[in-house]
Structure formats: structure tokens, C-alpha cells
Amino acid sequence: MYCWFLAASLLGAASARVATPGNETLPYLDAALPAHERARDLLGRMTWEDKVGQLGGIRRAVSRVNGEPSFNRTAFEQTRKTQNGQVGLGFQMNWADEVLPIVNELRQEQIDDSRLHIPYITIADSVNGIWVSGGTLFPGTNAMASSWNVNLYAQAVEVIRDENLAIGVQWVLSPEVDLAKDPRNGRNGEMYGEDAYLASEFATQYIKTMQEQDDDGWVKVATTIKHWVYGQGSGGVNRASMHGGINHVLNDLGAPYIKPIREAKPLSLMASYASVDHVPLSVNRHLLQDVLRDIVGFQGLIMSDANAIEYLYTESKVARSPMDAAKKAIKAGLEHELHPGGHGVFTTLIDAEDDEEIVSLLDESVLALLQIKFLTGQFDKPLPTIGDMKATLRKKEHLEVNKNMSRESIVMLQNDGLLPLTKGHLGKVAVIGPYADIINAGMYAACNSTDPAYGSSFRRSMERELGADAVLYAQGTNSILPSNDTDDASIQEAVSAAKDAGLAVLVLGSGLGTFDPSTVNNERTDQEGFAHADLSFPGQQQQLLEAVLDTGIPTILIMSSGQNFLLPDSILARTSAVFHSFLSGEFTGDVLVEILLGETNPSGKLTVTIPEANGAFPVAYDFLPSDDRGGFGAATKYDWHWPQLTRSPALRFGYGLSYTSFEIGNVTATAARGACNTTAVHVSASVTNTGERAGQEVVQVYYRPDVSVIEMPVMKLIRFSKVEVEAGDTVQVEFVVPGRDLGYFVNGDWVADGGDYAFWVGSSSRLEDLTQVNVTLSH
Ligand SMILES: *[C@@H]1O[C@H](CO)[C@@H](O)[C@H](O)[C@H]1NC(C)=O
Ligand SMILES: *[C@@H]1O[C@H](CO)[C@@H](O)[C@H](O)[C@H]1NC(C)=O
Ligand SMILES: *[C@@H]1O[C@H](CO)[C@@H](O)[C@H](O)[C@H]1NC(C)=O
Ligand SMILES: *[C@@H]1O[C@H](CO)[C@@H](O)[C@H](O)[C@H]1NC(C)=O
Ligand SMILES: *[C@@H]1O[C@H](CO)[C@@H](O)[C@H](O)[C@H]1NC(C)=O
Ligand SMILES: *[C@@H]1O[C@H](CO)[C@@H](O)[C@H](O)[C@H]1NC(C)=O
Ligand SMILES: *[C@@H]1O[C@H](CO)[C@@H](O)[C@H](O)[C@H]1NC(C)=O
Ligand SMILES: *[C@@H]1O[C@H](CO)[C@@H](O)[C@H](O)[C@H]1NC(C)=O
To answer: So which residues are the signal peptide here (predicted)?
Structure first.
């Protein structure tokens, strides 16, 4: 059989720590004991009230009123009485140095005042950096994934981890491994893209880096893999595959969880809001226990999403009352409640002490949280200091890593030869569009996009680089929402700027907004809470684009958003160059300028396929063969079958251009017997830089079994490697794929049978960019 090389479990692992002398009578205070022993000891000393209190927390400790942080003691105490497991930082536009003293005080109070001195653990979302303002602002997750550079990502996560530690946050609500297969989903910018393997590689790295142990053996920052599990649309195609069963959950939606959970052991997991097969995840015992725990092997704490337990009786109506919902959820396997404000639902369990099953499940739930607290050193480590915080946030090296990340995250989708521009020969440049002068970082970023202190927008970067006189800025339109606005004065202004300059750069997108409470969510067309009925540029941006293209002036289009937009041939044919920069970091503007001027050679690749029409999806490259059947003859503009409407999407998963050119050749795949008598496929290829300058190429390996027990996608990514190649040089790339990795789940069992396989190696998932080789694998 196969050898398993699983990392030792963090849970229950003893670690060498310095003992705190003095209190030998209380084992839970003994830092030398393993976390699970300390947790058991403490549990034995807790009252029912103590235990119920640990099931929830206070998500939003500090708000902001009139530009100042504001702490409401009355509201805090009301919640604290019944929910005191964790504490959140509150409003994200507060500055770290304002929030830290307040949160430190609350934490110290809880240690001093609570009967058993049980500390909170500080918890926060952390997508492109720390939750509150003042840290290093990275690009969004889909941007970072577009780098296809897992080592660089590890550096970025290390920065995000250390900045979290510096403000005392030791539990983050990431990574999000939901798959961005549906372009309508407003949250795609928070995800790693449409592919399970890519997401799983990035998420494994994220968890390993965050949960690294410090010199004393404490886990630096606990992670939460989420949201187990979300589905995806079926596309309305006759004969298309139907989804919902166990093979879909384990091979598609759950696939990005397997490796992170087995190898990196995230300490917690968040259940999704979704109902799978009519059963909301919060009460879905089958998916939480039989599948997640028993098959996937998850051992950490399972938490709810915000308000999810409440939705059981307010929306799904699968519970009669708050207490009914709480009982059903804890019986299904939820162990902790994430609640943005108010009373929470698990607090109602205070009246369930006579229910033996609840009593024992509640003990398990409290133990799960206490273990995270002990593993992360909450009982033993000192609170963070303002001095350390200031020395850590936005360190020079952190900013450099961030800039490096931006340099590799931007994807060039088209270049007719206009780029790179030559600085010395540039006249004026028109910089146009409602996204040209903001940092569009996404709603989970602590980014006041209108504040110039937050890095440089593309416009500001261009002005700095070329001089303000050389940049003709025109917003073009402020209509970024669906509107009947026919006023095109500002569009005309942009057209004039384009004509005056002779070169136009348009920055269009979605997701604009600041986190000022007075404007929150009132101008967004992307991110959580939004789905896209129309994938063209929202508001009057489409008219703006057409009007500028109609001038015939050379035009560069930069997309700025978590989402993808339609790029029909009519647009592509008239646009000189096209980029997607996804959700910005603070250096996205600077790096776009470096790229336009050729100082940085772009190397990002799409992690999401760009759809060709609003109705033509699923669009992800790894569709099932039956998704592409059921049509008669060629599809037209009005109907479709995968993968072609009027053309197959050229801008597919894995695609992205460079200023140099590469040739991937000499592709071989051979089966070999390796360590532990396992079989493996050895894939090799050479990458030759056939252009004039150094660049990076992402070599991608896809595969498919010829015959399988269940229907398998037309191809799946199985390995990738980003390599730097000097002009004229050739670099050899080797991959080893253990036979085991080529398997799939059938009704919960992993099947890796050997047999005939096709492998493809190349620079994107487009067939024209791939070389096929076949290999036969014995058992
Ligand atoms: C031991 O712990 C108890 C309870 O936390 C505390 O009251 C006592 O002061 C501690 N004793 C020492 C020597 O630290
Ligand atoms: C503080 O919270 C309490 C309880 O929720 C509320 O009644 C009061 O209005 C709040 N005070 C302020 C200044 O917001
Ligand atoms: C940024 O990237 C450059 C080029 O790869 C490298 O030399 C430099 O060390 C990187 N900076 C950091 C802080 O990692
Ligand atoms: C955002 O920045 C602008 C410009 O500096 C400022 O006027 C506004 O108050 C800021 N908003 C918040 C919530 O900090
Ligand atoms: C546009 O006009 C139509 C017809 O008057 C109206 O129903 C619709 O609400 C308007 N849309 C917007 C976004 O104002
Ligand atoms: C194949 O490999 C040889 C050297 O082993 C190299 O010279 C040649 O450029 C490679 N061909 C391609 C297409 O990469
Ligand atoms: C290795 O595996 C093959 C095929 O399963 C088997 O025939 C052979 O005996 C194994 N060798 C060892 C040393 O286990
Ligand atoms: C791989 O197998 C397919 C059919 O299974 C065949 O069409 C193709 O020519 C083979 N390719 C190579 C390089 O052998």
C-alpha cells in the first residue's frame, strides 16, 4: 500500500516550553504541560456559565465616531457577561496605534477580573493585511494567487502574520479556499481562483506560515480555513453535469481543503452559509462529521459564519427558536459562534444544562477553543506593546515584499507591441477612469481608498514618474452603478484628454468605496453581498470605454476589481494592451507604471477564466466532458455550448503574457517506481527564453486519466513551477507526481488505480499552449 508522510498533529503534541514557576497546584497554568492537558484541567474547574461564555465573543470592540475611535463600555459589558471567548478589533478604519491600547486594556481586564483568569483570544479577518489601518496593504487574494509564486506568497504571509502578532491578533479568519468558478460571485477577489490544486497549494503555504511555532513553541497565529463548503452554478446547458452529491463535494468543492487540512492542520474551520442538498451547513452533521472529520480528517475547531446560527430560524426555518437552532447546530458539530454583535445564539444554551448530550458536546466545544488558546500562548505570553507594534508595522522589508508581490501579481492579457513604452519618447498620457485615482483594495482591506496616505493610486504614480504636466487625468464618469444617466459631459472630457495626449490609459472596474460608516456599501458593485447579473463594466464605464476606443487613439485598458469582466472581440481588437490588476495593494499603481515603462516584466497568470458572455458559464477550464454536449451544430451568439460561443475563451485559466517569449519543449512523462515502492510520474520540460529580455514563465502540468470510475474533468492542474529565464537561456523543469496524487474520491474512498493517463505541459490551460504526452502507470 501507500506510505503516508503526514506531519505530526499539532493538537495534542507536546512541546518544550519554559515552565512558569510557582503555581504547581494548577496544571492549566503550567506552561510546560501540553495544551490538551491544560485545557482538560481548566475545563474541570469551569462552571456552566464559564463554559457557555467561551462559545462566543465580542467581534466589534471599537467603533469610530467623528473620525475618532469610540469604545462603548455599556455595550461591551452587556456582551462580555455572556460571550467572552474571543475579542475582535472592531471598525477597520481605526488605526492600529489607537486600537491596541484599548484592546490590551480589555484583554488585561479579562485576565484580572474573570474567575479563572481565562484570557480572550484576539480574532480578526486578515485578507490583504491586518484588519485595522496602519499595516502593510497587500493586493487581494486573487491578485496574490495570480503570481503563481507560492514562495513569494509565503514571504507575504510571514509579513501579514508578524503584523498581526504585533497587534496581538493570534487567530485569523483565513484562508478562504472557496473556488472562484462562477464569475457572478462578488467574493471571487477573496479567493485563490477557480482551481482546487492551485488554491490548495496557496492555502497550505498560508497555514504553515501563519501557524509556525515561535522559539517558545507557541503557534504564532491560528488560522481558519473557510467556508466549508460552497457550491457553484450549473450553466443551463442541456446534458450538463448536475452537482450536489458526495463526489462533487469531495473532488471539487472540498478538494482545496484536503491537503491544507492533512498537511498544515489549520486550528479552525468555518462552516459556510450554504445549504447543501437542502441542509444548511450549520446543521449539516453529514458534511461536518462524516465527511469533514471522518473522511478529510479535520481535527480543529469548527465555527459558524457570522449570524449563520440565527439564519437557521430566521431564514432557513429549520429551527423553531434560538435555543432550538443552538441545540441543532452544536449537535451537528458547530463548536463556536462567530457573531458580529448583540447576543449570539449559543448563549441560549445557558438554559440547556439539563440536556446531557448538550452538556457533553459543550465540553468538547470549549476544549476545542481552550486548546487554541493554550497552543497560541494566550495564558503565557505578554500582551503586545506599542513599541514593538511600531517597530513591526510597515517595516522597510515588509514594504519591499509587498512591492515584489505586486510585481508578480499583475496579469498582462494583450499587447499589440505598443508596450513597453519608452519613457524618453513619451509625450503626454491621458489617465482616465473612475478607478484610476483610488486604491481599490476590497472590502476586507483596511483601506481608505480616498486617502492619499494609502500608497499611490495609478494616477498619482504616473504623475510622480512622468511629472504632473505629462498626465492628463479625467475621471471620465462618476457613474459606476447601473444608472440611466445620459449626461456624457465627463465622457467627452475624457475623450478630449485622450485626443490631446495621443495615448490613453483607462482604469475601469468595480468595488469602489471607502469604509467610512456614512458611505459603507453604498457604492459597491463587487465583493461580499453582491453578485453580478451583468459582467460588463458597471455604470457608464462601458460607454466611456467605447467612446475612448472610438477616437482610434492607442489605448491601454487596466481592470481593477475582484471580478472578471466581459472582453468581447470588439473591445480587444481595438485595445492595444489589456491588464488585470485585481484588487490593489498599496503599490499596485507604482508597479503598473513600472510595467508600462518596461522596468518590470509582467509574469502573472490568470487564476480565473474570463467569460465570453453573461450567460455562458460555467466557464472554468476544468469542466466535465458532458458539460460540452447537447448542442446541435455550432453555437451562435444566442446560444452556446462549452467551450465555444463564437470562440472559446482565449483568456483562460493559466494565461498571461510577458515582454519576452518562451518556448516550452522537450516534454516527457515517464512512470517510475520510487521510495516506499510507490509509483510516480516524472514530468520534465525545458523552457527557453526566445526573446530579448529576462522574464518569468509559469510551467503548468495538467492531467487526465483515460478511463475513470467517475467522470473526470477534461483536464486538471496537478503541478506548476514559476521559473526565471535569462534571454536566450534554457532552463530544465522537473516534476514528480506520485501515483496517489492522480486519484479521486468515489463515494468517500480514494481511488488511485494506475492505468493510462494524458499529461499536458505548457504555459496556460489553452490546448494551443500545451504539449500532450501519454503515460501508463502500474498500481
Ligand atoms: C496560583 O493561581 C491562583 C489562581 O489563579 C492565584 O490566585 C494564585 O495567586 C497563584 N499563586 C501563585 C504562587 O502564583
Ligand atoms: C452604548 O451602548 C448602549 C447599549 O447598547 C446604548 O444604549 C447606548 O446608546 C450606546 N452609547 C453610545 C454613545 O452609542
Ligand atoms: C524583492 O525581489 C528582488 C528580486 O527578486 C529580490 O532581490 C529582493 O531580495 C526581494 N526583496 C525582499 C524583501 O524579499
Ligand atoms: C478617508 O480619507 C479621507 C481623505 O484623507 C478623509 O477625509 C476621510 O475622513 C477618511 N475616512 C476615514 C473613515 O478615515
Ligand atoms: C432607469 O429608468 C427606468 C424607467 O424609468 C426605471 O425603472 C429604473 O429604475 C431606472 N434605473 C435606475 C438605475 O435609475
Ligand atoms: C530541448 O532541449 C535542448 C537541450 O537539451 C535545448 O537545446 C532545446 O532548446 C530544447 N528545446 C526546446 C523547444 O525547449
Ligand atoms: C512493489 O510493488 C509491486 C507492485 O505492487 C509488488 O509486486 C512488489 O512486490 C513490491 N515490492 C516491494 C519490495 O514491496
Ligand atoms: C496520446 O494518446 C492520445 C489518445 O489516447 C492520442 O491521440 C495521442 O496521439 C497520444 N499522444 C502521444 C504524444 O502519444
So the answer is: 1-16
Distance (angstroms) between ligand 4 centre and the Cα of 521 equals 16
Closest ligand to Cα 484: 5
71 alpha carbon, closest ligand: 2
| CA–CA dist 640, 237 (Å, integer) | 8
Kindly state if the Cβ of 66 falls inside 6 Å of ligand 2.
Answer: no
Contacts of 586 (CB under 8 A, 6+ apart): 136, 137, 402, 439, 441, 447, 454, 455, 456
Can you read off the three cell numbers belonging to residue 579? 491588464
CA-CA-CA-CA torsion sign (39, 41, 47, 50): negative
Alpha-carbon radius of gyration of the chain: 27
> Could you tell me the distance, in angstroms and rounded to a whole number, from the CA of residue 109 to the centre of ligand 2?
21
Nearest CA to ligand 3 atom 7: 404
Domains and CATH numbers, the chain: 38-230+247-390 (3.20.20.300), 410-596 (3.40.50.1700), 612-648 (no CATH), 662-777 (2.60.40.10)
Q: What is the pTM of this model?
A: 0.94
447, 452, 455, 456: CA torsion to nearest 10: 120
Residue 704 CA: which ligand is closest?
A: 8
- Per residue, the 3-state secondary structure of 660-707, as one string, reads CCEEEEEEEEEEEECHHHCEEEEEEEEEEECCCCCEEEEEEEEEEECC
E strands, 101-165, where? 121-124
Spatial CA neighbour of 715 closest among 624, 608, 644: 624
CA of 68 relative to ligand 4 center, distance in Å: 11
Determine whether the shortest distance from the Cβ of 22 to ligand 1 is under 6 A.
Answer: yes
- The CB density around residue 634, as the number of other CB atoms within 10 Å, is 10
Alpha helices in 468-608 (DSSP H): 489-501, 541-550, 569-572, 588-596
Over residues 344-370, the pLDDT tens digits come to 999 999 999 999 999 999 999 999 999
SS (H, E, C) 638-668: CCCECCECCCCCCCCCCCCECCCCEEEEEEE
Does residue 207 contact residue 257 with C-beta atoms inside 8 Å? no
Residue type, 481: L
How far apart (Å, rounded) are the C-alpha atoms in residues 527 and 543? 23
Ligand 7 atom 13: the closest Cα is on which residue?
A: 677
**Distance separating alpha carbons of residues 295 and 291, to the nearest angstrom:** 5
Residues in a beta bridge with 560: 509
* pLDDT tens profile 12-60: 333 333 344 555 679 999 999 999 999 999 999 999 999 999 999 998 7
Nearest-CA residue for ligand 5 atom 3 is: 484
